[in-house]
Design goal:
The complex is a heterodimer. Chain A is 0% helix and 52% strand. Chain A contains no helices and 8 strands. The relative contact order of chain A is 0.32. A 5-stranded mixed β-sheet of chain A has the order 2-8-7-4-5, with no helix packed on it. Chain A has a 3-stranded antiparallel β-sheet with strand order 1-3-6, with no helix packed on it. Chain A has a single domain, classed as Sandwich (Immunoglobulin-like). By secondary structure, chain A is an all-beta fold. Chain B is mainly alpha-helical. Chain B has 2 domains: 3-47 and 149-257, Cytochrome c-like domain (Cytochrome Bc1 Complex, Chain D, domain 2); 52-137, Orthogonal Bundle (Cytochrome Bc1 Complex, Chain D, domain 2), CATH 1.10.760.10. Helix content of chain B is 40%, strand content 7%. The chains are: A mainly beta, B mainly alpha. Chains A and B meet through β1 of A and α3 of B.
Amino acid sequence: MARALINVPPKAKRGEVIEIKTLISHTMETGFRPDNTGKPIPRDIITDFVCKYNGQEIFRAELFPAIAANPFLTFFTVATESGTLSFEWTGDSGFSATESVNISVE
Amino acid sequence: MTRAAFLLLTVVSAGVAASAADIPLGERKSGYDFMAPETRAMQDDDTANPAMLWVLDGETLWQRREGSAGKSCADCHGDARTSMKGVAARYPAFNAARARPVDLGERINICRTEQQRATPLAFESKELLALAAYIGQQSRGMPIEIADDARMRPFLQAGQDMFTGRQGQLNLSCAQCHDDNWGQKLAGAAIPQGHPTGYPLYRLEWQTLGSLQRRLRNCLFGMRAVSYPYGAPDYINLELYLMWRARGMRVETPAVRP
């Protein structure tokens, strides 16, 4: 299971713009590098990231081999209601990781 | 104690003779001070610092029972947040059984083989770096303090000789860059003073966490000098000298560097 670090303010005012930061451990192997024997190392990257706010998609990203290891994605949303932000990363070789955090909106 | 008195005391108790080219204690800067604001922000925010991923792994490994003794680090040392506070700030430290200094990574492996009866972790392995980062983090903000121990002197001197001695095809010494020309640019990158305040650290160029020995190999490669195998006594001596040179500076582990 990949390690992930999520930074979402635990509390926000209704209508406030909040910043969400996500960091996940992943090698993001490009597929272009040879190993010690000259054989290419197969590509192993995260290809998709989705963030949902109470089930509704608010942010999506496609990732490519040029993105560095341990991708750090940060984005903004408007705090509308209390609930859960869920995060899902999917990638090569069946890679899948999910995280969720709660936010309370006053 | 006033700052001046503290500095005087440090100079008097110095383990090796200060050479003329040494950076005055008050003018020392961490590599952090040479970084771009964006890279500093990464290090300052624990949810943006990728090295924290290793620290989290280290926290898990600390609790995990290993080896034929079936002991975890926590079984002997308890809560790392109290027992490991300040430990990384005083390594490399003298190991009486081996009659030489050992660095933190080696100390972890001594515990693994002698206490846990497990196989030692490979140099630069994810597990060893994770444990070193977790232990190092417990000293964050504390001053580096290398014990003034007579038994350490010859090793400290050997480290200083390596730092000031010219080597490699470019006939360069560490001191020529890090004492004499710090703050200048080398191929567009700032030359820092070379204080190992944040190891193991996340280097953006490596896209992973790495030890001080890995960084030293990097420098030796750049100097077209022969690099030693991981764990070689030459590295430990140099690590010891560099930590002594950075005495009093704050531990930043786990740091981020470009």
